Write the structure tokens for this entry.
Amino acid sequence: MQKEALKFTQDHEWIYVEDNVATVGVSQYAIDELGEIVFVELPETSAQFQKKEEFGTIESVKTVSSLYAPISGEILETNATLADQPDQVNSDPYDQGWLIKLSINNEEELEELMSYDDYEAYLKTLAH
């Protein structure tokens, strides 16, 4: 997936929109910070979430982190492969390691997300 086609949140989630469906995952920066992913907890399909509401957790060898909905919507699909292979988030966060697919309840929320270039600039402000 072309990173330039993605939108990002300050919580390091990415979103890709196609045909009114938003695919959501975590950024490479998040993976680098978390380390090896050992477990991902995702919601049931048809669950509804508001923007910035916690929809699941991601557990690494270092910590457990919350996952937040980048936009409001209904869960259409979860990446079932991650139940047995959570390391796909590490090896391919922008393709095989996606987390959920959401319907888009409010397109205006997409305008509030960062472009790839804006996200890259944001990351520079987080330098350790």
Summary: The longest helix spans residues 116-124. The chain has a mean pLDDT of 95.
